[in-house]
């Protein structure tokens, strides 16, 4: 019975009127994504993502498990997105049946797991009996809209940052080398999916939009919590840097035409390109920081490339 | 200061805190007093909903046990009769456990207690007294007693203890022992030594906590 947040009539009127006049409460333009701040923890696969006031933490872990019988050559990969009352008292602990929770976990699942961003075949150790089970735990710390976008960035960055312990296989016997004994190995990441969420508002009444003649719906990128509460429609597209559309999700809300979808994808591409570069750059800086003695300790000869 | 803490970083809850001690990092949120669900409501006092969430995997019996111990420590601290029929949600999210999770939970427990205390203060919930908690280990062979042991030290310990003390009068007077949870091999003398060292360390910690709260609220004070 967690109480939903209620937004007062005057505040909602103010926000909508501001949108009609092309203003947003936080001063962003309509197609501006909030700055993404990514920080890494001490261990591998420990990532915090902040977008404005939204804070998401992701922790990747792995252990050895038995693969599914029908997929003996594949490892396991699970994403857990459980929202606790920490993100706001509107969320109930252990309740994963809420509409927002289900939608969020399904989109993340579709974007990252089912798009094959993680090479699960690379997790196989002994076919049919042993494999790595990789787990991504997403912790939602603070909610100011854009949970899907932030958690997608957190999960994929976490997977790219994570390293699993090295192993040696002797027939059926496996030796797991602790990470301070042998250099751990990174996971195989095949592409980097990033979600961008568009929110739509109808400046006139709903009927006008159904007719579709003069629809002039307002579309904004990366809505804050208040904008999310007031929106009439939502679209989440997931793209990667190879210009592939990984998934499109539009569960109800305002109807929209195909051209609008195309335009949204183009706008989203510019954003995901920027975020992908940012993630890659940060990962590089982090690995250099962790590996500051590598250049000194290596016995490799300088080679011409 | 051996610990780092921050209060009031989260916006959608009434009080929040982040507590870091060595490799253990906990974030805690407190919401309350709010309307309680019918099954949680207590007719004369504040109901507490305490949630501990692990860094990796889903919450198991281990986290339930942590919640239970946390509840035992926090219940006497809060002036619960000030808020009849209300609810207070306390959520502790472990970001980094800083110990071997299947074997130990004392570092997490102590940090959760300290984080929850700071969170409650930040939420402005009426409290009777202050508390501070530290983990303690007795080492193998040397029998040395170490306060706030590292993950490595825990592995070579013979017994581990969690101690939480209740303080009044500006953190100068110890009112009560809220929790003393011991595991492993030890004798009575050693336990008294643990209490003695713990008392001293908790007293230092409670002064640190006071400082953190003071630093957190002083920008808001109008002098």
UniProtKB/TrEMBL annotation, chain A:
Source organism superkingdom: Eukaryota
Q: Which UniProt keywords apply?
A: Cytoplasm, Exosome, Nucleus, RNA-binding, rRNA processing
Principal localization reads cytoplasm
Q: Does the keyword Transmembrane helix apply?
A: no
Where's the Exoribonuclease phosphorolytic domain? Answer: 32-165, 191-269
Q: Does the keyword Nucleus apply?
A: yes
Q: What protein does this entry describe?
A: Exosome complex component RRP45
- Native organism is Saccharomyces cerevisiae x Saccharomyces kudriavzevii (strain VIN7)
Q: What is the lineage of its organism?
A: Eukaryota, Fungi, Dikarya, Ascomycota, Saccharomycotina
UniProtKB/TrEMBL annotation, chain B:
Q: Which SUPFAM superfamilies match?
A: Ribonuclease PH domain 2-like, Ribosomal protein S5 domain 2-like
Q: Which PANTHER family match?
A: EXOSOME COMPLEX COMPONENT, EXOSOME COMPLEX COMPONENT RRP46
One cellular component (GO) term of this entry: cytoplasmic exosome (RNase complex)
> Keywords on this record?
Exosome, Nucleus, rRNA processing
Q: Which Pfam families match?
A: RNase_PH, RNase_PH_C
Q: Name one GO molecular function term.
A: RNA binding
Q: Write out the similarity annotation.
A: Belongs to the RNase PH family.
Under InterPro entries, the record lists:
ExoRNase_PH_dom1, ExoRNase_PH_dom2, ExoRNase_PH_dom2_sf, PNPase/RNase_PH_dom_sf, Ribosomal_Su5_D2-typ_SF, RNase_PH
| Gene encoding the protein | YGR095C
Organism listed in the record: Saccharomyces kudriavzevii (strain ATCC MYA-4449 / AS 2.2408 / CBS 8840 / NBRC 1802 / NCYC 2889)
State the compartments where it is located: Nucleus, Nucleolus
Entries under Gene3D superfamilies matching the protein: GHMP Kinase, N-terminal domain
- A single BP term in Gene Ontology: nuclear mRNA surveillance
What is the official name of this protein in its record? RRP46-like protein
């Amino acid at each position: 019975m967690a109480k939903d947040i209620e937004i007062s009539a005057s505040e909602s009127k103010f926000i909508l009127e501001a949108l009609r006049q092309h203003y947003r409460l936080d001063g962003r333009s309509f197609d501006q994504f909030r700055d993404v701040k990514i920080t890494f923890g001490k261990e591998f696969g420990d990532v915090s993502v902040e977008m404005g006031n939204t804070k998401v933490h992701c922790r990747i872990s792995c252990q050895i498990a038995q693969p599914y019988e029908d997929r003996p050559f594949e490892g396991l990969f699970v994403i857990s997105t459980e929202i606790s009352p920490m993100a706001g008292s509107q969320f109930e602990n252990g309740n994963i049946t809420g509409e927002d929770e289900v939608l969020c976990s399904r989109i993340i699942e579709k974007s990252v797991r089912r798009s094959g961003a993680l090479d699960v075949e690379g997790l196989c150790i002994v076919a049919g009996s042993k494999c790595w089970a990789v787990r991504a735990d997403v912790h939602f710390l603070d909610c100011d809209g854009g949970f899907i976008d932030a958690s997608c960035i957190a999960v994929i960055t976490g997977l790219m940052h994570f390293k699993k312990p090295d192993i040696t296989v002797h027939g059926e016997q496996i030796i797991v080398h602790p990470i301070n004994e042998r250099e751990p190995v990174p996971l195989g990441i095949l592409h980097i999916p990033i979600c961008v969420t568009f929110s739509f508002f109808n400046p006139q009444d709903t009927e006008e939009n159904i007719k579709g003649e003069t629809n002039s719906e307002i579309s904004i990128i990366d809505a804050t919590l208040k904008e999310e509460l007031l929106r009439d429609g939502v679209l989440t597209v997931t793209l990667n840097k190879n210009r592939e559309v990984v998934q499109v999700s539009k569960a109800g809300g305002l109807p929209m035409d195909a051209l609008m979808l195309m335009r949204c994808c183009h706008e989203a591409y510019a954003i995901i390109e920027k975020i992908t570069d940012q993630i890659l750059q940060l990962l590089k800086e982090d690995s250099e920081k962790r590996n500051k003695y590598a250049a000194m300790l290596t016995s490799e000869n300088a080679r011409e490339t | 200061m051996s610990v780092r803490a921050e209060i009031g970083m989260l916006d959608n809850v009434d009080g929040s805190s982040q507590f870091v001690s060595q490799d253990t990092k906990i974030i805690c949120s407190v919401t309350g007093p709010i309307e309680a669900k019918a099954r949680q409501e207590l007719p004369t006092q504040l109901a507490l909903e305490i949630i501990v969430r692990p860094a990796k995997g889903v919450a198991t019996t281990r986290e339930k046990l942590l919640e239970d111990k946390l509840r035992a420590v926090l219940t006497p601290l809060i002036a619960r009769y000030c808020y009849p029929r209300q609810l207070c949600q306390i959520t502790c999210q472990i970001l980094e456990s800083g110990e071997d999770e299947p074997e130990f939970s004392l570092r997490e427990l102590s940090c959760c207690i300290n984080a929850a205390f700071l969170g409650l203060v930040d939420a402005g919930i009426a409290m009777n007294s202050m508390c501070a908690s530290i983990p303690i280990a007795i080492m193998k062979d040397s029998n040395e007693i170490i306060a706030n042991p590292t993950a490595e030290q825990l592995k070579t310990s013979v017994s581990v203890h969690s101690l939480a003390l209740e303080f009044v009068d500006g953190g100068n007077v110890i009112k009560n022992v809220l929790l003393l949870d011991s595991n492993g091999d030890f004798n009575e003398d050693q336990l008294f030594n643990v209490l003695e060292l713990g008392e001293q360390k908790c007293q230092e910690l409670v002064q640190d906590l006071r400082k953190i709260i003071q630093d957190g609220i002083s920008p808001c004070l109008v002098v």
